[in-house]
Design brief:
alpha+beta; Lambda Exonuclease, Chain A; 3 domains; 5-stranded mixed sheet; 5 strands; about 10% strand; globular; disordered C terminus; binds iron/sulfur cluster
């Protein structure tokens, strides 16, 4: 799952493996921080998973339409329910359905499967969202509701640990040679992300991480290692972690840091040679410098924002953070009762037309009202999807690079569509 939930309590959980595989000191350090109630994002994630599970059960013919509707009705009663969850669950359900249909015969299919990967990680267990086994292929699929971090499928330790656990459980009954591990994260990525590796490759990876897991579990020889995983995997002690703060405060002064990352070996050698010869670095940053500093700065800003959130909450909880206090932020005026306010204006003799704007419902609202099929038939020809504004992201982000020519073309088409309309 994308967020920590009540169903994942192992000390070295699969969902946190991206953290403890990188920072072996984290699990024992985190033990001092209470779990606290799940945040709203985690609760939303849990609810969205329930909608996904329901959708897949219905698609698989395991429940009737009536049961689907009645269970969905119950889920809708949750104050955190959002209509978007039905849409994202459909994307997830469609992927599983296509996987199931890709086999010649009917594959084995299960959801919410608890798997045990303790052969590789002490006391390791976790819950897979979906398992499908057909031919020689084991398919593990995980739904991610979060949209803060675009989770990759390549080298994804959470998925690999699930796969090792599933292999242990089903390997005796099925002749599995390959493993597909897919992430469906519809709120930030239209396409499924998938990695397929052989069972030998998977087991070799398991052997490789075994000693790291042992260190993380016992804490003997464990080391703190700060990196993007502190935030991406919600390390519980990240706000006050000294190793993280020391690394970040060193970032405040970029010049003291060894420059690596995006510089080529040649650029590093040239730089070192220049420094040894007593030459100052060029006054203007190179493009490689800019890339490197952006990468470092992005994490610094993100860490600083988290530190602010932590300090504000600490003050609201009655603690004192020397030099800081909480104040009421800026707020906008609003009606205590909008209907009563409109009535009063009308009674004062103003025209109703003056009070309201007549606006069409949004595309998504109308699609929901009309139904997908009719919507497509009646107004599908009027729907265009302009390319989003260019956004700077790290190179490893799975989205396609921005294409100015395609954006120009899309813009042209939009303009034509508007003129034609
Ligand atoms: S915040 Fe980062 S460095 Fe500190 S314990 Fe957690 S994962 Fe390790």
């Amino acid at each position: 799952m994308g967020t920590t939930t009540q169903r994942d309590h192992a000390k070295l959980s699969a969902s946190h493996s991206g953290c403890w595989l990188n920072c072996t000191a984290a699990p024992n350090y985190e033990a001092q921080f209470p779990d606290g109630p799940p945040g709203e994002a985690a609760q939303e994630g849990t609810l969205a998973h329930k909608v996904c599970e329901l959708t897949v059960s219905y698609n698989a013919g395991q429940i009737t339409k009536r049961k689907y509707n009645s269970q969905l009705k119950k889920l809708r009663e949750d104050p955190l329910f959002q209509e978007e969850m039905i849409k994202t669950a459909e994307v997830y359900g469609q992927y599983i359905w296509e996987k199931v249909m890709s086999f010649d015969g009917k594959p084995y299919q299960a959801q919410e499967v608890r798997v045990d990967f303790s052969d590789y990680v002490p006391d390791g267990f976790g819950t897979c969202d979906s398992i499908v086994i057909g031919g020689d292929l084991l398919c593990i699929t995980d739904y991610k509701h979060g949209k803060g971090y675009n989770v990759p499928a390549e080298n994804n330790s959470q998925m690999r640990l699930y796969a090792l656990g599933a292999l242990k459980q089903y390997g005796m009954f099925y002749d599995i040679h390959r493993v597909s591990m897919a992430i469906i994260q519809p709120r930030i990525c239209d396409e499924a992300k998938e990695e397929i590796i052989t069972v030998e490759e998977l087991k070799a990876w398991g052997e490789q991480i075994k000693p790291i897991a042992q260190t993380a579990y016992t804490g003997e020889g464990a080391e703190f290692h700060e990196g993007p995983w502190c935030k991406n995997y919600y390390c519980k002690g990240r706000f006050v972690c000294r190793a993280r703060a020391e690394n970040m405060t060193a970032l405040e002064d970029f010049k003291d840091l060894p420059i690596d990352g995006l510089l080529t070996e040649q650029e590093k050698a040239d730089r070192e040679a220049a420094m040894n010869a007593g030459f100052a670095l060029p006054p203007a940053l190179t493009d490689a410098d800019v890339g490197d500093l952006l990468y470092r700065g992005e994490r610094l800003v993100s860490w600083y924002n988290e530190l602010c959130d932590y300090a504000l909450q600490a003050i609201l909880d009655g603690k004192s953070i020397p030099g800081w206090k909480a104040v009421a932020g800026r707020s906008d005026r609003k009606w205590d009762d909008a209907d009563a306010a409109m009535d009063d204006i009308l009674k004062a003799g103003y025209q109703e037309a003056m009070l309201y704007d007549r606006k069409p419902k949004s595309l998504a609202q109308l699609e929901k009202l009309i139904g997908k099929k009719d919507f497509e038939r009646i107004v599908g020809k009027h729907v265009v999807k302009p390319m989003g504004k260019p956004t700077l992201v790290v190179e490893s982000d799975s989205r396609e690079p921005y294409n100015s020519a395609a954006a120009d073309l899309a813009g042209l088409k939009d303009r034509e569509a508007t003129q034609d309309g």
